[in-house]
Design a protein that fits this description.
Its EC number is 5.2.1.8. One of its GO terms (biological process) is spermatogenesis. The structure is a single chain. This protein is of the alpha+beta class and about 250 residues long. It folds into two domains: about 90 residues, Chitinase A, domain 3 (Roll), CATH 3.10.50; about 150 residues, Alpha Horseshoe (Serine Threonine Protein Phosphatase 5, Tetratricopeptide repeat). Strands 1, 2, 3, 4 and 5 form a five-stranded antiparallel sheet that branches. The protein starts with 8 loop residues before the first strand and ends with a helix.
Length: about 250
């Protein structure tokens, strides 16, 4: 059986299941533009498919033949799958994300969370951000926003030394920038501006944060503020096409 740590993997997979000689389709998600993230052992419970996926790498495609003991057993799955049936699966692995440490962290008490080493805390928050990035790229912006905010809450769990706080702030800066862009996609410009300004509190010369604030102000028709933010961003990155195009739009 796959180990418990491997079962913490979240993956996105395109799959099609067949009976017979690849001629009778009984299940598929091939028509889905953005297959959902599924967890081995929870959303994917077919033993043969779990083992097969754990032998694959991101971007790989495979054909699997599962005898009944690795598939639906002696009973089958009426009415689609008769008893003692060998099934065939065509699989493509689109992505893998390991959620083991996030899952373990969320099961801890607040006191236990606060006592974790900083390195572990940063890793958990980075994994949550990775989940957020995944959902953002799939255009699931509300889910991405929730993941980024969860990462921020994880980073807020401890009081620390100045050196540790510097590392935490570096992680928070990335999340503020992610949230600013995500709220722009959600057409919540005031929230986008808020997180852009939080990023600027940590790094006044961050061109990306200035650009996000300029975009948000432009959306809210606060043209003077937008011009100020975008001009400051342009001073830092004078040849940035996105910044220059936004200034043209503002004009």
């Amino acid at each position: 059986f796959p180990s418990s740590s491997l079962l913490a993997l979240g993956c996105t997979v395109k799959y099609s299941g067949y009976l017979g000689n690849w001629n009778k389709l009984f299940c598929s998600n091939g028509n889905s533009k953005y297959p959902r993230l599924m967890k081995l052992g929870k959303d994917i419970t077919l033993w043969g498919l779990e083992i097969g996926l754990l032998s694959m790498t991101k971007g790989e495609s495979a054909l699997f033949i599962f005898t009944p003991e690795y598939a639906y057993g002696q009973r089958g799955c009426p009415p689609s799958i008769p008893p003692n049936t060998t099934v065939l699966f065509k699989v493509e692995v689109l992505d893998f994300i390991d959620s083991e440490e996030c899952d373990a962290f969320l099961e801890l008490t607040c006191e236990q969370q606060d006592s974790l080493p900083l390195e572990k805390l940063l890793k958990v928050a980075a994994t949550e951000r990775e989940f957020g990035n995944y959902f953002f790229h799939k255009q699931h912006f509300k889910i991405a926003k929730d993941r980024y905010k969860r990462a921020l809450s994880i980073l807020g769990h401890r009081s620390s030394s100045k050196a540790e706080q510097s590392q935490i702030n570096a992680s928070k800066l990335l999340l503020f920038l992610n949230l600013s862009l995500t709220y722009l996609k959600l057409e919540c410009a005031d929230r986008a501006l808020k997180y852009g300004e939080l990023a600027l509190e940590m790094d006044q010369g961050n061109a990306k944060a200035l650009f996000r604030c300029g975009q948000a102000c432009l959306y809210m028709r606060e043209y003077s503020k937008s011009r100020d933010f975008l001009a400051r961003a342009q001073c830092i990155q004078p040849f940035n096409r996105d910044i220059n195009n936004e200034l043209k739009k503002l004009a």
